[in-house]
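2024-03-11 09:14:02 INFO receiving multi-entity request
2024-03-11 09:14:02 INFO entity count = three
2024-03-11 09:14:03 INFO echoing inputs for audit
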Amino acid sequence: MQILRSLLFRLASTAVTLVGVAVIVFFVIRVVPGDPIAMMLPPGATDEDIARLTALYGLDKSIPEQFFIWAGGVLQGDFGTSITARRPVLDLVLGRLPATLELSIMALVIAVILGGVAALTGTRERGTKVEAGIDVANGMALSVPDFLWALILILLFGVAWPVFHISGRVTPSLDLPFVTNFYLFESLVRLRFDLWADIVSHMFMPALALAIPLAAIIGQLLKQSLKETMHLDYVTLARTKGYGENHVIIREALPNAILPTLTLVGVQFTFLIGGTVIIERLFSYEGLGNMAIDAVINRDLPLIQGIVILFAVLFTVVNLVVDLTYALLNPRLRNA
Amino acid sequence: MKLTRRNMMKLSAATAAAGAFGLPAFAQNIDELVIAYNTTLPSWDPTTGPSAVNPTIQGIYQSVFDQFILQQPDLSPAPGLLTEWGWNDDRTKVMMKVRQGVTWHDGSPFSAEDVAWSLARAADPATGNPINFVWSTLENFAADGDTVTADVKQFDPTIFKWMYFLTGYVLPKAYYEKVGADGFEEAPIGTGPYMVEKFERNAFVRLKANENYWGGKPDFETVTIKFVTDAAARVAEVESGNAHVTLEMPYEEYDRLKGTLNGVAAPISDIGMIFLNDIDVMLDENVRQACALAIDKQTIIDRLLSGYGVAIDTLQTPEYEAYEASIKVPYDPEKAKELLAASGYSTDNPVKFKIQTTRGFKPKDYEMIQAIVGLWRRVGIEAEIEVYEIAKHYELRAADTLAPAAFYNWGNSVGDPTTSTGFAMFGPSPHSVWDGADLIEKIGPLWGEADEAKRIEGWKEVDRYVAENALVIPLLQYVQPILSAKGVEVTPHASGALLPHLMKRA
Amino acid sequence: MLDGRSQIRRKIGLRLWLSGGWLLILVLAAVFAPLLSPHGPLEQDLFLGRMPPFWVAGAEPGYYLGTDSLGRDVLTRIIYGARVALIVALVAGSITALVGSTLGLLAGYLRGWVDVVISRLIDIWMAFPPVLFSILLIAVLGPGLVSIIIAIVVIDWTRFARVVRAEAMAQGAMDYPASAQIAGRTRISTMIVEILPNVLPTIVVLLTLEMGIAVIVEAILSFVNLSISTDDPTWGGMISEGRTSIHQAWWIMVFPLITLFLTVLSFSQFGEGLKDRFDPVLR
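2024-03-11 09:21:47 INFO inference complete, emitting structure
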């Protein structure tokens, strides 16, 4: 009962947040200077032409009126039509979403692996130079944001030692047999490992840039909880039973230390998704974020609205899922 | 995860060979010509919406559709779907003869009906044609046999030039009415040299040669146009042989590759210029003159654009009809200092104003403006740079609220003075920011001038007046770099459109 | 375990020294830029474009770190760029701290409907992708130093508000504020006199971190061409200019990037160092 009630409360609160986001983004972008209509005027257009096009895109109505027309549409799943692409916003946005999701998830996986390895090694080698080294590396990775890591990776692996692709999502000349936009996933399903390798070598640099700060957070927190767990009685017990250090850390300490890290990863994952905006731009990766910046530059108001809303939905959904997982996994919280 | 570059190249070469794009080294073997294009194609209807007036995609449209009149690579008109065109003596009617024996891509015959319908559709504001204001100067379109006639509502001496300019395309009446706008978007057909075989939005379009093209079957049977918006990626495409032709890359890259690949860098009908708004200090003729005289255009072209550009002194390029070589604005910093001194300005007491520019919209735009501001600083002009996006520029220009100086590029692929000096400098035009009454008076009568020679002379006089009074600062004509594989010969089109049917096996 | 901890203690000192030292160098460079720079920041010579740094063949004497495509001295522009970076860091950081901490303090201490409103605002803010939001804001405000500062404040106040709210709530639950109120203070003055000093160390640490973030935001906005738009040098602007010619002239991008990297690292490490100083147990 308790859980159901708190779940309902969370859902209601999420809805309020999303409405807030919708209202703010709608009114903020109406004050953006720059006129999408003026952009499509050819040399020699007259004032009547401007008025005609403005009416065609519904931009002649008052702002509150426009809002209700738009909000009414959104409730029926109609996010309007992009001014530059002249296609439904929802199609465009959902078309790009898989690219961004794949990038974010790949980054998350890299972060978990890097952070996990760092934490486990650090715990195993605690008190030695290795641990100190891991701490320093962690500190640096944590201090510098993804944007700078991306630039550094471009310099190192794109220019100085060109190993990975630093632009795009897939080599354009490849003939893609895909029916969905989940290229990475679909190439695996279709057993097209040639395509998969190409896609990975495109995604690795941006994903790594996104992953580095998160890996540091995971490494730091997990190591800390591991250290605390290592002092607990049952771990000591396992050790006296004669299990090796690796077994003790991975089998005994890790399952108990992982919960706090898990919640944190959830929250940080939303930051990571937010970071894709600039990272996609840097690597010319054809995702949502790149489209968002183009939409701002082109003053494609319906498209900007759609993308921001989708990001907000993504963030709140991730948070919701994390909270629920935590509530289910943590017995203490379940009764609270 | 150990991928070396060589491994990867092998990998991509292998996959490419396995895929549909072959990579033969010699053009004789090129069955499928691959072009890496610098923009995506948002829509197939060449007559509506923003893409209709986007100059960069006209090359794709012109591969599939024909314009009313054919435009040759040097910008001059030639018989196309229309073989004859003209006015009656008192300029109240237009008459056009339509080419016979042409068929649409679906095999149905092309007729005068199609032309009349396309013109009427363009003139109907409800279709959303952005050039509607031009087409609606004609009315009562009628087709009779191979002839199309219309009444002139308002005389426009450039109406036939628009028939090979933006939105001047002939679409299939019967087909369009049958499938509707959405169906046409799905499966567009035209009379052009290529037919659409497969279109993957944001990725590529595959074209098949039109066997029955009235202008002769094109050289390459299949052409794939890939949309690669990133310049570095386009360079990589041709360098690796994955694409045979590409355009618009940094000039440094062009220079690096033009030995191993074929390179063509020809001037196109696109110029860089600085709008001057008649506000604040720009009302002072000395300041304007000094601004113009203190810019060393040739050095900027040589040092920043690697020499790829043509310095210009009017808004006409040498290819345009109203180009007048005798109008010159020299680089003369000493004269600039004198003029500024006459208005009480010096390097210690500089004249101050704001200059707006785009950044990354055109090659080296921001760098050029920084260089110009640096040159100005030496003579006593302190200009503050403001970067704006192109959307903002359009809005400010339409509202006549540009800064005293604003950098922009102006395309004019028909080469007519009305579509360059005319719209850019005529006060009442929403594209102009110079509102001086004397200039309006000079330009006014030229709009409806029926005597062609007199009209062109008139525009040359306007250009001279504009240059002498420094009402705008023309900077340069852009050069479009095109790289192609050895064995593919590209004929550049001065409009900037990259046309696959003009590509030949060498 | 024991010697491990003593090792960490030693490093904290070193960390504060190194990061503080670099930040001090920056401040000095910014203040004395005209004296230190070999050239003027705007001085350009098209005939000296893209000269390499001094150890590479073909370098132009006097241009130690080379020149950009307009022939401007890279070293000079890095030194002058410190001015913009520090102004953005200090001003944007402080205002963000002020706004965010005030809201956080009010929400955490006063609770009730104030907390409901502010928490809801925080929730909404957290649902925006921050980079996209800042780009949108600059598009609204127009580029320029003031716009960047406003954008940073508008986006990042939640960073302070969230943490300070939690801290203030914890402090408010303790006994001493209640006893202060019994002693006759109003709630607001209790908040300022009793609660604020206790959350101040947290605010100072967050502020240092925020300064590093502010410098990065400027660079990101420069990268999408939305930063300060005069030809005054900024590191972000230099990096984005340098990126376009990275294959021809790597030094235009590399040197400002190293400077930016060290600066962001220093701000963050300085903050972490302070955190350890204030609360050694926290680690």
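2024-03-11 09:21:48 INFO post-check: Residues 41 and 50 of chain A are 8 Å apart (CA to CA).
2024-03-11 09:21:48 INFO post-check: Chain A touches chain C through 52 residues (CB under 8 Å).
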